Here is the input.
Amino acid sequence: MRTTTLAAAALLTLSLTSAAASADPGPAHGGRHDPHADGPSVTKLSDTVLDERALYFVSYDGLVNNNSFQQDALLTHAGYQYATWYTESRHAVVARRALRGADTGWETALLPHRLSADDSHNVISLGISPDDGRLHVAMDTHNTRLYYTASVAGLASRPAAHEWTAEAFGPVRRTLGDLELGGMTYPRFLRTPEGRLQFSYRTGGSGDGTMELAEYTDGHWRHLGAWSSPSGRWTGPNGEVSHTRNMYPHGLTYDDSGRLHASFTWREGNWDVLCHPGGLTNHDTGYVYSDDRGRTWRNDAGRVVGVTGSDPVGIDDPGLVVDPLGPNHGLMNQESQAVDAHGDPHVAISYVPGRFTQCVTDYAADRARWGHTFHVYRDDDGSWTKREVPVAPEHTQRSKLVFDGADNAYLVQPRGRIVAASAESGWTDWTVLFSEPGMNAFGEVNVDTARLDDEGVLSVQYQQTSEGTTPSPIRVVDFRLG
Here is the structure.
């Protein structure tokens, strides 16, 4: 059993020194907190409309066009930015705009597929395979077979040479290329440093699911296998036992050295582990990494704890938890993860601290009222530090974490508010840098990390709040950071 009771302090600092001190922490930070480094800043550059009448309905407290687990719904490659959403007719749309030269605005390609269910899980995710320049689109799946299409070769690598139409994409299929994968949820694309495209997804369901990987090589997808296990015995703080669960990654992020970082929380299948059925069975923040493109997984101390396809990571494996927290705090899954310039992982998590209640009875209402965000990160010496962000999200939904070129940290909170902390302070001086209620953003947003890395510009996709199922504008706002 692992539980944490938080002290009644406005700003909580916990240093969690783990066995990782003996592991290779990556490059030394030497001078990370440079007193002459630039502090965080936000300058709004533009706010453009993707669609005046995008599909709108609220499901699982979220929108199908903006969810934290989309990786990615907004993506930059070779000087063009791509965005995706469902329009009023329920059609999947992919758009692009040139980021250099003449401002040609957004071009849209209406795909033939229409959203099959009013379910906010059924998001659209984009990926690009640099070796052949194809744009890949995975969509509309929640414990069902996915819908997938890919563009002609070269569309993303030589965009100016290709007309932007639906005909540039192949037929929408129920397989990942020629790979049959069965039912899945949370499709994500991720790209390795050498340009290989991978695909992450969950099979099974909430409380009894498995994370799996596939890889795109020489124009074909191949299945790498499961890398998390739903099996094992876990005892809740009330003594109840759960025998199944699923891993919820906060992100899958490659650093420049090629290390794949995965932070996560577990969700138990037995809801009797809770103090009240209105809570969430999510507990603990865990961490593993892979230095061989997701084939072998190690815990924070460097010990092998999983092999994809044969011996997946499970709750009984040692050294997975870097921040212990019991299941009665409304801990949110799939929030956000980023890696700083020195290759160290940072995680944004949110939950109801114990100073407000030790038993969440309505996770949505209690999170909106009492929820706070916490910054959890691994430092030079292999220890993990946790601090409460003093600006509460005041919302049920999740924030996105990014870094600028000086390693200042930014949280894009629900409704598009941006708070930031400087690397110079050791990420202790969290301050609101942007808040514009007139944006009328619904809740969660999507961010373009590729453009931020390339240009220092943060693009944020958001949808405006509406009523019932009345369509509303979906937009992209651009900020210069640092």
